[in-house]
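Render this sequence as a predicted structure.
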Amino acid sequence: MTQKVNTQKQPNYRWGVASRSLSATLGGYALAASMTACLTLVLPMSRQNAVPAAAMLGYVGFTAAVIWSFSCSSAWKAWGGVLIPTACCLLVVWLKTGGLIK
């Protein structure tokens, strides 16, 4: 007996995996970069110490984005979980550098 393969679900599954991979790589990079910029401005230490500390914490953000992207139940949640913190970090950077928060 031959088993019938459901070809209808294969493309959706593959697009989901591709979307999660992009969320992990591109979204993780964006999160790490925005986290580094945000923490450089926010950490209560001299700029010479804040930059390396923020860069090291940016790697934590990248790792968290990769873990989050593949542990969510859908690709939409994966993208939302990466882009919302990225937008929050960019908002803080914009507010701190735009002169609105001194």
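Summary. Residues 34-102 form one domain. Residues 40 and 50 are 5 Å apart (CA to CA).
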